[in-house]
Automatic annotation (TrEMBL):
<dbReference type="InterPro" id="IPR036775">
    <property type="entry name" value="DNA_pol_Y-fam_lit_finger_sf"/>
</dbReference>
<keyword id="KW-0238">DNA-binding</keyword>
<dbReference type="Pfam" id="PF00817">
    <property type="entry name" value="IMS"/>
</dbReference>
<feature type="compositionally biased region" description="Basic and acidic residues">
    <location>
        <begin position="417"/>
        <end position="433"/>
    </location>
</feature>
<keyword id="KW-0239">DNA-directed DNA polymerase</keyword>
<dbReference type="InterPro" id="IPR043128">
    <property type="entry name" value="Rev_trsase/Diguanyl_cyclase"/>
</dbReference>
<keyword id="KW-0515">Mutator protein</keyword>
<feature type="domain" description="PI-PLC Y-box">
    <location>
        <begin position="374"/>
        <end position="410"/>
    </location>
</feature>
<protein>
    <recommendedName>
        <fullName>DNA polymerase IV</fullName>
        <ecNumber>2.7.7.7</ecNumber>
    </recommendedName>
</protein>
<keyword id="KW-0963">Cytoplasm</keyword>
<dbReference type="GO" id="GO:0003887">
    <property type="term" value="F:DNA-directed DNA polymerase activity"/>
</dbReference>
<dbReference type="InterPro" id="IPR001711">
    <property type="entry name" value="PLipase_C_Pinositol-sp_Y"/>
</dbReference>
<keyword id="KW-0235">DNA replication</keyword>
<feature type="domain" description="UmuC">
    <location>
        <begin position="7"/>
        <end position="191"/>
    </location>
</feature>
<keyword id="KW-0808">Transferase</keyword>
<keyword id="KW-0227">DNA damage</keyword>
<dbReference type="Pfam" id="PF21999">
    <property type="entry name" value="IMS_HHH_1"/>
</dbReference>
Length: 433
């Protein structure tokens, strides 16, 4: 580890849900769940108000509804998330030229590359506080949690400690005192499946992990991950902040000579592929947040759908559940000739720098789900010729209900229209260059 606390990790709090609450004033302070809107969808992000009811990332929409029936279930507006993320990343780049985004809502910043008088604890603490103020300002009120420490690993751990809307600075020299009582799951790359293997070997905390020899960990988890965890259990982590980094993914796909028509069979194939993806992820010490499926139809149209979780997974059963839910949103009635499952995003930085072995893989094209334009998924932006901008509160039986409010207005009125009302339009920003 470095001698100074020069690595900062910033994590926006309940990001997708927070953007929705910013843009939909009537939902502020209320449970909001992004994802899980269809009968078979999966929760992407739950607001803190919804988390109190036990709703979490990767949970099925059905279970989330059972736990928190009065929550607002929204389909997600990725243009708004991308735009807000860009503003945050710019604030970070104004501070230091070395910024490494991990996803839309998380990044590392190398403070040693920033123009600071020194890297004393008092100085970096003030930098972190000012950064949080700026993020709040440029995002229109979103909060972020910050961790500052002597390595990426510790900065990431520190940013989890005071969520939401907090900050933790780990003074150099105190890293192991902080880590030892913690559960092994704080280590990025230790997803549910790896955790289960460690648990069966009687290893729950980092203190316990520290007692295990490197040979034993390699025997238990394989060369790459065993060696990596042995180092992290000792807070040994000198990985640099890397400004430009490609997103990594692991995927499995298969093509078929005859078109598949049976939904149950397709789900079975996706489940098997998801388990294989999970196995390869664990072998490489990898866990990721974005689960994608690829489906080629009988007419060779290729569709990709993906779902992003707020915490990483390496668990085949979880990946399978999300993959099946994504398939549930597609019309495959004409038959399917290719199916594939992949996971990308986030915790790959662990694997790439520390564990060495690059997973052999095909890139998955990640396309965020954008429903067809004349449907009215809950949460999407609309404009009515007379009433102005609003968002879809719900729809059914030929009627769409809209709440007319924006980030700049107080909570607004609710009106219902016929679904084919020519005065009502979906609103999306112009396509990016
Ligand atoms: Mg976050």
């Amino acid at each position: 580890m470095r001698a100074t606390a020069s690595i900062l990790h910033l994590d926006l709090d309940a990001f997708f849900a927070a953007v929705e609450q910013r843009d939909k004033p009537s939902l502020r302070g209320k449970p909001v769940i992004v994802g899980g809107t269809g009968g078979r969808g999966v929760v992407s992000t739950a607001s803190y108000e919804a988390r109190k009811y036990g709703v979490g990332s990767a949970m099925s929409g059905r279970e989330a509804r059972a736990r928190c029936p009065h929550a607002a279930f929204l389909s997600g507006r990725f243009h708004a998330y991308r735009e807000t993320s860009r503003a945050v990343m710019q604030v970070l780049r104004d501070l230091s030229p070395l910024v490494e985004p991990l996803s839309l809502d998380e990044a590392f910043v190398d403070l040693a590359a920033a123009d600071l008088p020194d890297l004393e604890v008092a100085t970096v603490t003030e930098v972190g506080a000012e950064l949080r103020r700026r993020v709040h300002e440029v995002t229109g009120g979103l909060t972020a949690t910050v961790g500052i420490a002597s390595s990426k690993f510790l900065a990431k751990v520190a940013s989890e400690l005071d969520k939401p809307d907090g900050m933790t600075v780990v003074p150099p020299g105190t890293e192991l005192d902080l880590l030892r009582p913690m559960k092994v799951t704080v280590i990025p790359g230790v997803g549910p499946a790896t955790n289960e293997r460690l648990r069966r070997a009687g290893i729950h905390t980092i203190a316990e992990l520290e007692q295990v020899s490197e040979d034993e960990l390699v025997r238990l988890l394989g060369q790459a991950q065993g060696h990596g965890l042995w180092q992290l259990a000792r807070a040994q982590d000198l990985r640099p902040v890397v400004a430009e980094r490609e997103a990594k993914s692991i995927s499995v796909e298969s093509t078929y000579d005859v078109d598949l028509n049976d939904r149950k069979l397709m789900e079975g194939i996706l489940t098997r592929q998801a388990k294989e993806v999970g196995t390869r992820m664990r072998k490489n010490g990898f866990s990721g947040r974005t689960v994608s499926i690829k489906v080629r139809l009988h007419d060779f149209t290729t569709l990709s759908r993906s779902s992003t979780l707020s915490s990483p997974t390496d668990d085949g059963a979880t990946i399978a559940r999300i993959a099946r839910a994504l398939l549930g949103d597609l019309d495959t009635t004409g038959g399917v000739r290719l199916l594939g499952v992949g996971v990308s995003g986030l915790a790959d930085w662990v694997q790439e720098d520390l564990f060495g072995d690059e997973p052999e893989e095909d890139e998955v094209e990640v396309v965020l789900p954008e429903p067809p334009r004349r449907t009215w998924p809950p949460g999407v932006d609309v404009v009515h010729d007379e009433m102005g901008p609003g968002w879809v509160w719900g729809s059914g039986s030929g009627v769409v209900t809209v709440r007319f409010e924006t980030a700049e207005t107080p909570p607004g009125p609710v009106r219902s229209f016929r679904m084919d009302d020519p005065a009502l339009h979906r609103w999306e920003p112009p396509p990016e260059e």
